[in-house]
Design brief:
This protein is α/β, with parallel strands linked by helices. It has a domain of 187 residues: Rossmann fold, CATH 3.40.50. It is 42% helix and 14% strand. The protein has 14 helices and 15 strands. Strands 3-2-1-4-5-7-12 form a 7-stranded parallel beta sheet, sandwiched between helices. The protein has a two-stranded parallel sheet with strand order 6-15. α4 runs parallel beside α6 and α10 runs parallel beside α14. The relative contact order is 0.12.
Length: 384
């Protein structure tokens, strides 16, 4: 059966990688919902993404102008109904991932957008007997300020949230779960997504870059960190491959799959600091949060007020993740669904080192470098 995909979020890191993987099967038809903006029309933006991703055959990839926050996804009635009769798989990966938005602003995309996607999926489900399911990309951070182990289907607001992003994604998943009796859905919960596991390649706005820039380019002498804090970090290619593999088995419909390192693979901050030193040549000192708040911050604010504002503006968004003890995410269901697929989380230190190296070589993704072609001796199985 020919699969017809409708993807949101292809201008983002994960959505782009999913599109790249799907494009390798010429039988797939891929509709990508994109808004036009000052950088170009939807067609122009999609062509640029495909070119940068190395996709040469774009005949089966189609840009669809739309808007998550609008009724009928911003499409005219005829287009909306035509797609509803044609689409077999929906992958909803678009989201506002900023941590500093007001709850009203971020709800428009993350909650309102999800409601509009669910309405579209229900229309597909009713009009097309070949419709399979909606794959929803949420986040592990719906666990909020919970401590200990967060299990796959846990979803509660009683522990509170670190920011409006976490709350909005919790509300979106709660709405989605309320519709799963009427709609086939698979929920995915990635943790912190970073660059490709081998090349380290990432977009300039990757989530780890602001905090790295903060201490590497602004010459901050010491970092206020809790070195016991664990970070759950995964490469984007692992997440994209896992989503497509799990989605290919209809037995997984109705499931929730954390795409995370889990207790076995997450890393303490104290493990990452030597990697920063190795790759960037900067030996960063760590101070307790209490020392920062009571001694360093007041002096810093008085002596260098402009730099202080920049630092606080950036650091405040990430503060809960480097000071607090975050939950760990149970990945038993994910590991079971991936058994025999050959898809597994690569060595954490290795892929994080690759991400740091790419950041250094490309000025945090701003400078283009050609893809490295493996030597024959390194990969003798590759025919060049």
């Amino acid at each position: 059966m020919k699969k017809v995909y409708f993807i949101t979020g292809v201008t983002g890191f994960l959505g782009e990688e999913i599109m790249v993987l799907l494009s390798k099967n010429s039988d797939n038809r891929i509709y990508c919902m994109i808004r036009g903006n000052k950088s170009g029309t939807p067609d122009e933006r999609l062509k640029k993404i495909c070119a940068e991703s190395g996709i040469s055959d774009t005949g089966s990839i189609i840009a669809m102008e739309g808007d998550l926050g609008s009724e009928n996804l911003g499409m005219d009635a005829e287009t909306y109904e035509r797609l509803s009769s044609e689409v077999t798989h929906i992958i909803h990966s678009a989201a506002d991932v900023r941590f500093n938005q007001t709850i009203e602003a971020i709800r428009k995309t993350n909650v309102g957008g999800t409601k509009n996607i669910v309405a579209f999926a229900k229309n597909c489900h009713s009009k097309n007997r070949e419709f399979s399911h909606l794959a929803y990309v949420g986040t592990c951070f719906v666990a909020g300020r919970r401590r200990g182990i967060a299990k796959e289907h846990d979803l509660t607001s009683k522990y509170g949230f670190k920011n409006t992003y976490e709350r909005s994604k919790y509300e979106a998943e709660k709405f989605l779960r309320g519709n799963m009796d009427e709609l086939p859905v698979i929920i995915y919960r990635p943790s912190i997504i970073v660059g490709l596991s081998e090349s380290g390649k990432a977009k300039p706005r990757n989530v780890i870059y602001p905090i790295l820039k903060l201490f590497l380019t602004w010459n901050i002498p010491a970092i206020p960190l809790n070195t016991r804090t664990r970070l759950d970090i995964v490469p984007v290619d692992f997440v994209a491959k896992a989503i497509l593999h799990i989605s290919d088995n209809e037995k997984n419909i109705g499931g929730c799959f954390p795409l995370a390192a889990g207790p076995e693979g997450n890393v303490r901050l104290r493990t990452l600091l030597p990697l920063v030193t190795d790759e960037f040549g900067k030996n960063t000192k760590v101070i307790p949060a209490s020392v920062w708040r009571t001694l360093i911050s007041p002096v810093f604010r008085r002596v260098k007020p402009k730099l202080y504002k920049k630092v606080i503006r950036t650091f405040s968004a990430f503060e809960p993740y480097v000071w607090d003890m975050s939950p760990q995410y149970c990945t038993m269901a994910t590991r079971k669904a991936l058994e025999g697929s050959g898809i597994s989380l690569p060595d954490t230190r290795r892929f994080i080192r690759n991400c740091f190296r790419f950041a250094k070589e490309t000025d945090f993704g701003e400078k283009h470098i050609p893809e490295k072609i493996p030597d024959r001796d390194e990969h003798p199985e590759v025919a060049v």
